[in-house]
Structure formats: C-alpha cells, structure tokens
Design a protein that fits this description.
single chain; alpha+beta; Jelly Rolls; 2 domains; 9 helices; 46% helix; elongated; cNMP-bd_dom_sf; Crp/Fnr family transcriptional regulator; cNMP-bd_dom; RmlC-like_jellyroll
Length: 200
C-alpha cells in the first residue's frame, strides 16, 4: 500500500535529521510502502536479504539475534517515530538480526537504493544519511557501554528513568532479553526496585 504525502512520517523524520528541506522528496515518496504487522508477526529474519529502511508509524518492535542454540537475545526495541535497518543488509548483504512486532505495527518501508541515489546527487540527502549513520553508531556505542560498565539492575533503573513508557509496554521475557538477564533475574531486580532497595 502506498503512502499519502500528507500522512508520510519518513520525509518529516529525515528532514528533521538533515536540519533542512530535502529535494526530490517525490522520488522517495513514490518508493515508500506501508507494512502492517500483527503482534507476534515477523518482519524479516536473520540472514535474510533485506535492503530496506523502516520508519515506525505505530507500534513497538524488537530486533533480535539468534545464537547457534536457538536462544534469542534482544538487541534493540524500536517504537513510534524511530527508524531502523540492518546495515549489513543494505548493500546486497544479509540481515544480521531478526525483527518481530511486540504490538500491532504500521511501518513505512523504503528501498535503500533510492535513498542512496538521492544521497549520491544531493548534498542535503548526503548529510542526512551521514547523520543517520551517526545516530545508529551512537545507539550502538551507548548500548555497548551499558553492557560493559553497568550491572543489570543499573540498566533496568536507567530504562525506568529514561523510557518508563517503553518499559511498561514490553513483556517481561522480552524486557529481560533486552537487559541481558533471565526473566527470573528481572523479576528479582524489579522487586528490589519496587521495595526501594539499592544494590550494594
């Protein structure tokens, strides 16, 4: 399903990232498709060719890795107003992670090749892509720092402080996976936090 110009979220988001009006918006607009997902439905799978960028119009998704034993670990949670893509899949590669809807979702999907074409011939689009990549890198760096320098309880408290609305929407098993602990471990930490007990 095509996106009506007045309803498009991607253009507004990209112009916000670029800090200016972007040229040839119609070229991207004509390439954007709406995707609807039910809660629990997969968008794409790890190791699948998937050279697309997504903007979340509505809903909540989890981006996950599967290890050799079939265990799932959540790398990211993505909600309304955010964008995502598997960078490894954008240049004829394979996705390094899977994506599944936690809630019913409405997404805007666009081929990376169209964004790349625009960036190749327009400086503003090029700056937007560069800034978007910096946003990706900053997210990754922040996540790595949390895992390498913070305890699971500190990560949980930080999530409650910074994104309480997100923590309230995510099922406990997915939240535990996102924090890198078991559901039992999360339940224990959550009880301590509710009781006002600080880790020593």
């Amino acid at each position: 399903m095509r996106v009506r110009p007045e309803d498009c979220r991607a253009i507004g988001l990209f112009e916000s990232i670029a800090g200016e009006i972007l040229a040839e918006r119609d070229l991207l607009m004509n390439a954007i498709e709406l995707r609807h997902l039910n809660a629990g439905e997969a968008l794409f799978s790890q190791d699948e060719a998937h050279p697309f960028i997504y903007v979340v119009r509505q809903g909540l998704l989890k981006l996950t890795y599967l290890n050799a034993h079939g265990d799932e670990w959540t790398k990211s949670l993505v909600a309304e107003g955010q964008f995502f893509a598997s960078l490894s899949a954008l240049r004829s590669g394979q996705a390094s992670f899977s994506v599944c809807a936690i809630e019913a979702c409405v997404l805007e999907r666009m081929p990376f090749r169209v964004v790349e074409q625009l960036a190749d011939r327009d400086l503003a689009w090029s700056r937007m892509v560069r800034t978007a990549l910096m946003i990706f890198a900053e997210r990754k760096e922040r996540r790595e720092r949390q895992f390498l320098t913070m305890s699971a309880e500190t990560r949980y408290r930080l999530l409650l402080d910074e994104e309480p609305h997100l923590a309230a929407r995510v099922p406990q098993k997915d939240l535990a996976s996102y924090l890198g602990i078991t559901p039992v471990g999360l339940s224990r930490i959550a009880r301590r936090v509710r009781a006002g007990v600080r880790e020593t």
